[in-house]
Amino acid sequence: SDFDLVIRGGTVVTAADTVRADVGIRSGRIAAVADRLEDGAARVDASGLLVMPGGIDSHVHLAQPAFGGPAMADGFETGTRSAIAGGNTTVIPFALQPRGASLRASVADYHKEADGRSYCDYGFHLIISDPTASVLGQELPALVDDGYTSFKVFMTYDDLVLNDRQLLEVFDCARGCGALVMVHCEGYDAIRFMTERLEQAGRKAPYYHAVSRPESVEREATHRAISHAELTDVPVMIVHVSGREPMEQIRWAQRKGLKVYGETCPQYIALTADDLKGLNMDETGGKYVCSPPPRDHASWEAIWEGIRTGVFQTFSSDHCPFYYEGEQGKLNPKARTSFRWVPNGIPGVETRLPILYSKGVVEGRISLNEFVALTSTNHAKMYGLYPRKGSIAPGFDADLVLWDPNRKETIRQELMHHGADYTPYEGMAVTGWPVATYLRGMLVAEEGRIVGEPGDGGFLKRGLSPYAVPAHGREI
Ligand code: DUC
Ligand code: ZN
Ligand code: ZN
Ligand code: ZN
Fold first, then answer.
1. Tens-place pLDDT, residues 214-241
2. What is the number of the ligand closest to the CA of 191?
3. One MF term from GO for this chain (predicted)?
4. What pLDDT is attached to residue 72?
């Protein structure tokens, strides 16, 4: 027969359609989608299941150095193992330039980490912490040509923060290169001011992490990033948006006609700042420390409003895992002395799809097609992977997740495949769960078992984002 594999009898869901169809796969690609295909060399019965494009998580952190802090709990092996178990087939982590380092050399370090270790396909965004003349003039344009077509910049953190002048210079460079800029919007000085005041008052429990960076701090930085993007005429993606105020800034910009995009994450519809209180303001609140911090129930509703009305294009995990008990069982005592030393980030690459499916599709807030757009298709389009990734149609890579829409699970650490020693979603009941994950036609995960191998995943040289074209056109 014509096919290496036929996935038979499932309901195929894309960002546009929901149809009962068979999917024929040949040489790692989708060869046919039709009502009824003849058997291939192999056949899988998907009756009762949804067949969706594999999740694309365009915001994960793997193997990032911690600047003297604790090491990240996931490198490429455990992080992508967790990704495929959770129904994903592509991740886009970050290659971080430490200050003083060459960007090209930093990218090479991440390739060394990823090479032969990844269970799924991957690209890299570039984190720019030191936008020197040679970085802006030579390194970035060459790296964009090589498929690193998006940058992330930070408006906070001692080791990463860019001042307004530097933000403008990176934005202007991105405009010239056709790269898409992702911005971490929280104001550095306001956070420092609050952190020092809270520590002086003896307020050092993890909960005060949330108090030190309230929504106004995120809203101000979001507005500032948007204004700089307008000034330089460059499209920007505002990442990890936590609540109403930053969401409304993005909506305001979009209504003005600016090319401002938005990303949100599971923690902003499933956790609140109260989680950072732990048990009676103890250190267990450290399991929920991430930035921006989770807010409150009204913020969840604001995030849903932004999802439903198209303010947000992507729903990413911001998977950024650290060990609660300390690296390899060694306690991280400094993190217990003040919230300021608790590393910012939580694991979530494996739970992103079930959380959005359960709260979004099952609870009636979004359609199946919107689910696919938010978790896969829009990531591919936004970051230059379309039309290779992100849909189910002839010619696309056969990256698929077979999804049981009725399966009830309780998220628990024992189910997870990540390197971290906890999940912040412990005990959360969800409906809808990945049953099998196919990477370019290969079964890589099935029922929580990892079937693929490290090295199955390869590097994706990404094209320019069609969303990164400046509103006023490219220079000639
Ligand atoms: N920003 C991220 O994107 N991830 C984790 C922490 C942070 O500040
Ligand atoms: Zn440039
Ligand atoms: Zn960030
Ligand atoms: Zn992140």
1. 999 999 999 999 999 999 999 999 999 9
2. 1
3. dihydropyrimidinase activity
4. 94
Best of 320, 340, 346, 349 to mutate for ligand 1, by most ligand atoms within 8 A of CB?
Answer: 320
Q: Which ligand is nearest to the CA of 344?
A: 1
Rounded to two decimals, the pTM is 0.98
Give, for ligand 1, the residue of 184, 188, 212, 342 to mutate: max count of ligand atoms closer than 8 Å to Cβ.
184
CA 335 – CA 343 distance, rounded (Å):
8
372-399, pLDDT tens digit by residue?
Answer: 999 999 999 999 999 999 999 999 999 9
Q: Output the residue whose Cα is nearest ligand 1's atom 7.
A: 291
Tokens of 394: 């002839």
241 touches 250 (CB < 8 A): yes
- Distance, CA of 393 to CA of 54 (rounded, Å): 13
**Around Cβ 331, how many Cβ atoms within 10 Å?**
12
Residue nearest atom 1 of ligand 1, based on CA coordinates: 291
Within 6 A (CB) of ligand 1 lie 61, 184, 240, 290-291, 318, 320, 344-345
Residue 254 Cα to ligand 3 middle (Å): 21
- pLDDT of residue 466 exceeding 80, the answer is yes
Distance 475 CA to ligand 4 centre (A): 31
Atom from ligand 1 closest to the CA of residue 186? 8
- Give the phi and the psi of residue 432 in degrees, each rounded to 5: 105, 125
Q: How many Cβ atoms from other residues are within 10 Å of residue 36's Cβ?
A: 10
> Which residues, in sequence order, are bridge partners of residue 183?
153, 238
CA 320 to ligand 1: nearest atom: 5
* pLDDT computed for residue 475 by the predictor: 61
Q: Characterize the bridge pairing of strands 29-34 and 18-26.
A: antiparallel
